[in-house]
Inverse folding.
């Protein structure tokens, strides 16, 4: 620990992302990346990009992308915010809406960046526990609060909350902002974007990293009331006026336009998830119902940390969490059908 660090830096426990290995030949099922390449329209847009434009700054408002998102989701452009991946969008939202005198609420098992943001921005929080089936109990959020946030589908569990349940929560919670983090919504469930015109305190955050195969370009966005979007813009423009580069905007717009490819790759992942669910159960795993591009599993006769190590030895990388309540679970990203079959073959070899 350096003597030059601020007290804030000394006290932080940073978020730890999934391993990005340098080893060759690994089957990587640990960070929920899309196993398929970006849409052909994306490739064409990047190839045809006028590279001389890179000498100038990008549009600070990313208006072309905002309009494309507004058209795609049937909202007004002033209801759209974009940022450098959904993590940046979330960080700005924590600053814009959650610096309150009351604690914010999010689940005890959820995206582990949330408590990091709270520490960084000095935000008090409480964590209502998931029930024994690893479901978010929305009744626990019907209390005085400075804001609410949770992923839907939840991570790392993959369980999803229905639109009518969200509507009921919003009807009860009218005095603070509810952020629904929909990184995985394209793989199951209904987006809460349908509710933003009815509830001015609802902010829906999504990403191009998962279903659009653009994790390497870092594009995230939020949709909500103009009031919320203006709050986000105020914070963004006090921090970084140019969060999205020209290539990222170009690729994201093209990804939205290629609807056929998006639907095809999405359906392939859902089909592989269903196949993997069945295959894991046949090996004796307990598998939570998943609406995401991953499955969350445990085995009554095998320690999760040892399984993680055994799989890695066989060049298969999955995600292990050491946190209480989930330290006997593995989160496994849904790869191609071939990758899923390789995982099952490796597990059979371990179990022999």
């Amino acid at each position: 620990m350096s003597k030059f660090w601020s007290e804030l830096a000394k006290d932080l426990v940073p978020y730890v992302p999934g391993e990005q290995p340098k080893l060759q030949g690994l089957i990587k099922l640990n960070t929920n990346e899309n196993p398929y390449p970006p849409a052909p329209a994306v490739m064409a847009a990047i190839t045809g990009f006028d590279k001389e434009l890179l000498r100038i700054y990008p549009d600070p408002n990313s208006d072309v992308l905002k309009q494309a998102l507004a058209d795609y989701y049937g909202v007004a452009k002033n209801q759209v915010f974009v940022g450098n991946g959904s993590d940046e969008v979330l960080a700005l939202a924590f600053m814009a809406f959650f610096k309150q005198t009351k604690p914010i609420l999010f689940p005890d098992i959820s995206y582990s960046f949330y408590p990091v943001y709270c520490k960084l921005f000095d935000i008090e929080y409480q964590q209502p526990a998931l029930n024994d089936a690893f479901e978010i109990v929305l009744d626990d959020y019907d209390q005085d609060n400075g804001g609410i946030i949770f992923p839907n589908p939840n991570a790392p569990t993959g369980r999803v909350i229905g639109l009518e349940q969200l509507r009921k929560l919003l009807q009860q919670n009218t005095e603070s902002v509810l952020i629904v983090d929909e990184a995985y919504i394209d793989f199951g469930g209904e987006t809460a974007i349908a509710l933003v015109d009815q509830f001015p305190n609802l902010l829906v955050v999504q990403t191009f990293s998962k279903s659009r195969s653009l994790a390497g370009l870092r594009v995230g966005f939020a949709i909500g009331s103009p009031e919320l979007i203006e709050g986000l813009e105020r914070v963004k423009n006090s921090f970084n006026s140019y969060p999205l580069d020209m290539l990222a905007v170009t690729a994201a717009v093209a990804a939205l336009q290629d609807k056929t490819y998006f639907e095809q790759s999405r359906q392939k992942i859902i089909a592989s998830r269903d196949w993997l669910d069945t295959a894991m159960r046949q090996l004796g795993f307990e598998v939570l119902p998943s609406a995401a591009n991953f499955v969350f599993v445990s085995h009554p006769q095998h320690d999760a940390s040892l399984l993680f190590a055994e799989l890695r030895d066989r060049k298969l990388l999955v995600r292990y969490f050491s946190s209480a309540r989930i330290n006997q679970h593995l989160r496994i990203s849904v790869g191609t059908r071939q990758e899923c079959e390789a995982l099952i073959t490796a597990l059979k070899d371990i179990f022999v």
Notes: The chain has a mean pLDDT of 95. The radius of gyration is 20 Å. The first strand starts at residue 27 and ends at 28.
